[in-house]
Amino acid sequence: MIWKKPALFRRSISSAALLVLAACSNVAQAATYTMFRDPGCGCCTNWAGHVEDGMNTKVESVDSNDMAAMKTARGVPQELWSCHTMEVDGYIIEGHVPAEAVAKLLRERPAGVAGLAVPGMPLGSPGMEAGDRVQPFEVIAFGSAGRSVFASFP
Is 93 domain-assigned? Predict the structure, then answer.
């Protein structure tokens, strides 16, 4: 006689699998997104809106009158600085990093990476839209593993 799993058992396993999948897909939404910005900067709020829309989350904005000290305290290399800095789930996101790169970082969690940066303020990057004008830019991963190109846009 072949043992058949009772329907209730099959439903329990299916339900458990769905819960695990839902938990994995909601990791990005469960994290706290805190962006530090100079109170006079407008592109920062545009970028935060891009992250909120692209990752279905809320970005808390904290004004700082000493962004240099804040970036230094969080280990952002000076040559990678931009106008705003975000902390999310133990990572630092510097500048106009696209939401898809942030999501990839949170999903893959590469060893030795402390954060991502888009140095400067390239035209066409999220929050720096200027009509159809776009400058190619790279997202740089930084941390104990050194620096490397994490993604290139467009």
Answer: yes
Q: Which two tokens stand for residue 64?
A: 């700082």
Tell me if 67 is assigned to some domain. Answer: yes
78-88 confidence digits (pLDDT tens):
999 999 999 99
Q: How many domains does the chain have?
A: 1
**Residues with Cβ within 8 Å of residue 124, at least 6 apart in sequence:** 130, 133, 134, 135, 137, 154
CA atoms within 13 A on the CB side of 45: 7
Cα dihedral 151/154/126/33 (nearest 10): -20
The pTM of this model reads 0.81
Strand order in the sheet with 33-37: 59-63, 33-37, 84-88, 91-95, 115-118, 137-143, 146-153
pLDDT for the residue 29: 55
CA atoms of 23 and 17, how far apart (whole Å)? 10
Tell me the mean pLDDT in the region 125-138.
95
Q: How many Å apart are CA 46 and CA 58, to the nearest integer?
A: 13
pLDDT tens sequence across 88-99 = 999 999 999 999
